[in-house]
Each structure stands twice: as C-alpha cells, then as structure tokens.
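Summarise this fold before class:
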Amino acid sequence: MFDYAFLVLLLPFLSAVILGLFGMKMPPKIAGIIGSTVLGTLFLLSLYTAYHYFFYTGEYSAMGQVFNVVDGRLSNGLYPTVTVFNITWLKFTELLTFNIGFRLSPISVMMLIVITTVSFMVHLYSFGYMAERDEKYKFEEYEKGFQRFYAYLSLFTMSMLGLVVATNIFQMYLFWELVGVCSYLLIGFYYPKHTAVHASKKAFIVTRFADLFFLIGILFFSFYVGTFNYDLSTSLELTDKLSTIASDPTIAWAIPTALFLMFIGGAGKSAMFPLHIWLPDAMEGPTPVSALIHAATMVVAGVYQVASLFPIYIKFGATEQLHWIAYIAAFTAFYAAAVACCQRDIKRGLAFSTISQIAYMLVALGVCFAIDNEDGGLGYMASMFHLFTHAMFKALLFLCSGAIIVIIGSNFKEYMGGLHKYMPITNICFLIGCIAISGVWPLAGFFSKDEIVSACFQFSPFLGWFMTLVSGMTAFYMFRLYYVIFWGESYYEQDPEHRRRPQEVPFIMWGPLVFLAIISIFAGWIPFGHFISATGKSAEIHLQHFHFSSVAWFSLLAAAIGIGLATWMYLPKHNPIPNILAKRMPALHKAALNRFYIDDIWQFVTHKIVFRCFSIPIAWFDRHVIDGTFNFLAWGTQEAGESIRPWQSGDVRHYAVWFITGTVALTLVLLCLI
C-alpha cells in the first residue's frame, strides 16, 4: 500500500539536483515553480500517507509482513510500525548492519505532515520574499541566487524527511548531519554579508561539536547492543539484548550513558542551554529559512530523537537521564523567555521564543515516567502535540515577521510601529500567532501547552508552577512584540514625506500566512491523543471536551497576567513605564539584552582557554616538531643526494678507482678484525 513511499525521498532529491546543476540556466520563476510543485506533491503524498496509515481498514503487506487493520490499528489496539523498505548498505555482523530504509510510525507520519506543510508554505512564500521590489513594492526581478535558494530548500526537506523515517540510528545520524550542512548553506545564503557567514560558521561548529557526542553515543549503543536498530516493536532480539544488558550490574551503565550522549547531540540541534548560542545568530539567513529550519523542523530534531528512543529510556534504566533532560530544558525555557523580553530585533525575539518552546517539549518528555498507562505517559503525547501545533503558529509568526521586514527594510522595532493600519492581514495573522503561542483558549497552543503543564504537575508541583510562570512570560514577550510592531508610534508617520508608506504584502506572501493562521486556530481541536500516545492506544485530551482542570485555569490566568502587563506597558504609544523599569534595573536589563553574557563566556572559553592553551601549542608542535622533522628528513635526503650526485659521473676510470679503493679498504678492515 505504501509502495510509493520512496518518492517522498526521491522527489526532493531530484529537485535539489536539477535546480543545483541546471538552475542557473533556467529563468528564476521556472526554478521556483519546479521546487514549489515538488513540495506541493510531497504535501499531498504526506496527507495521503497519513490518511491511509491512520484510517485504512483492510489487509496490506510490507517487507513480507502482513498487517490486518481496522481504522489503521491492529487487533491489539496499536498502530503498526511499517517498514516499507530497508536496504542493507554495510554489513558488519548478522545483527550489526547499516541500512537505509523507510519506516512509518505514528510520530514519523506526524512529522511528515509537519515538514511538508511548512516547507510547502515556505516555498510559496519565498516567491514574494526573495524578490526585488520597486518603490511601489511591485516585483521587479528575483534575487541573485534564487535558483540556488530553492535547491537548498529541496535538499533540506529531503534530509529532514530521511531523518524522521529512519529505520536505525545510524541512518538518523547520516541525515542528521546532512540537515546540518543544509542549515549551514541556508544561514549563509547571503555570503557577501560578513555577519551571515559568521552566523553560518557558528551554527555549523556548535552543532558539529554536539553531534560528536551523538556519534559517540551511537558507537556505545552499537558496541554493547550489537545493532543500530532502536524500535522495540520490530525486533524481539533487540528487547532481549537490552534486557540482558540492563540486568548485568557490570554494564548496566552503558545504555543510560549512550542515550544521554545521544541527547547531547539533540540538545545542540534543538538549541538547549548552553548550546543555544547559534540559533539567535542564525536569524541572519533569509526569513523563510528561519521559518522552515529554526522554527518548525530542524530544531525539533532533538525532540524527535528523544521521542523515538523514549521506550528504551523508560524500560531499560534511563529514567534518571530523562529527569536531567527535564531540568536542563526547564532552565532553558526560563532563560530564553527572560532574554526574549528585552530583544529589539524582531527575528531574534522569535528565535529565543523558539528555544523556550522547544524546551517545553523536552520538559514534557523528561517528566514522563511510564509508557503503560495514560497518566504516566501524558508528557509524551503532550510533547508531540506541542511539536505539531508549535510548528504551525511559529512558522506563521516568522513568515509574518518576514512580511514586515520586506516592507519596512529592517529587523528592528524602532523602524516599525502603527502597522495595523497599513498591513491589516499581517496584523491579524500575527495576532493569531501570538494568541496561540500564549496558550489562550480556543487556539491550538492552549491545548498542547496545558497538557505539558499538567504532566509537569504530575511529576513535581514545583516544576508545574515553574512552567506556568514561563507560560506567563511567553504571553508577555509575544504581546510586547505585537504592540510595539503594530500599535506603537509609527516610524513612517513621524516623517511621511521622506519615508515610504507601508502597505500589505502581495497574495503570494499573505496566502501562506492565512493558511497557517487557520491551522493555528483549529489544530488544537484535533484528537491528537487518538493518534499518538505513550501507550500507543487512544487517549483523550479532556480540555477538548470542556473539562477544564485547575491547571488549565491557572495557565489561562498566567497568560492573562502576561498579556495584561504587556498591554499596560506597551499599548500606549508614549508610556514611560518600560524606560523607567529599565533605568531602575539597568544591570538586569543590560544583561538580558546581552543574553546574560553567555556568548561572551563562550568567546572567552574558546579564544582565551581552548585556543591559547590547546590550539596554539598544538599548532606550534605541528608546525615546528612534526613539520620540522619531516622537513629535516627531506632536507637531509636532498643534501645527501646533492653530495653523492658527482659520484655518478659516467667515467669508467673513476668507477675503477672507487672500486679498487673500496676493496682495499674493506680488506684492511677485515684483516684488522681477524
């Protein structure tokens, strides 16, 4: 039934190859149409796959397995794990093989929808964003490198899709690294710009540093377990092997250690503290890139990795590691929210918001303590639900910011203000995104965020209240951003004769905004627990049936307080309160504005300690000792050659003299020894 699945990887790969090799020989518009058509096809294929996976009734086979399902579920009430194909690339042992395959599970099918939906919207949106405009905001021509941009987008989409359908952790790692390469290319798309190049290198280095731990974790896992497979539902041998290791006191540490090492790789990709420093700088890339990579898809790779390995965490003694993940993520959520409250750059504010929301998802996974009951596994479902909803409204917010930047020509809030009159569609869409991320009923963010907070309260009341506080901070900084951009003092109206009048973006840009806004409104009403849960069986989201718990009311209260504070401080055009607070707490305000100097600490550690104490001495040793040794050998060989070259004269008389002399000398030596 899923025989067409190879097209999900093949189509974007062909699009990337065609646009990369031949794109510059075709008109930019044609290149954009090719890329967008391919993504539109992938979007439809993903919806078709999801429909048949979750709702099909009947019998089908894949890889020799026969599945008899009713509404997608087996007789035991679980959705099957369907391996469509699994090609052996490298074979080390009977169990340890490196395969490239395509596997469908509830979370991978959900990720297919997320990736293709956002990527398709970004492809359409980029037609408008990546175009030069005249004074009246009409398209004149497409930017230099437009075809290259679409090639990179297609390659990234293929890489991310390959990651989520991986049949083993080594395939996941392979596409994981390819995602990092695409991120590097897209962040540094404006390569003549020094800041863009610096940001791309920073992102590449930080994530590669984290990925090293991912690789070490994979090697640990494969060494002790003897396989790269991680899906317990498809391999009884894997379950038996893990059980044997977990019950052996001498090597029981291996599995938790391997899992936490792999999480460090995920922490780098998902920008968890202190490996978050690359994400705000990555905003130097085009805004569609920020929406696709740094809001909806790539940054959730770490969340997807932990969710994929979640049964191993729970069943084989790694629950303590999950708790550490929760603590790290909780601190990251608070830190990022605090920094977002003071940002002047609209995209960097959204970047820190992304860090905070990704941390929310990891907190939810970290507080899970069971997969055999609905309550213990609430965090798993909540995390995946928030991953889905957040992808939609955060992509919406980033694309709205891109529309503003295109019209205004700047990322900074000082050049905005009063845009609700000139950009009404963008205003409404941005407001919907703000309400959704703030967790206000009945929009999507309310349902998923409340499930996370409920899971936190089940784990620890302190953690529950802490995440409720972060939820209130989210509402505050998002509405601060909204009021400053759309209702603050207008930069244009201060000097209308010498400044361009803002206006709404064209349909090709606001169309995707409206589509994502509609999803952000209604996505919370999807019966998500029916499709994805820790137990694999259907679970209810009680809030969808208007069963509001005290946790829900407290979450709404936190959101209301945050929105109320933002309204009081930033809705009036000349309110002195923000400046007064900044002056009364100058050290705190400056620290938050400078990201609490974490970047400076990294600069000090890398430049003053790593470079001076390690890199420079190693470079000196390499240059003077290693290179010096080999240079000396080369010099000695050359000099020896130059010295004995005259001996090879071609004169027989000289050869005879040397021969006789040598013979006489050797004879004398032998006589002396005898």
In short: The chain has a mean pLDDT of 85.
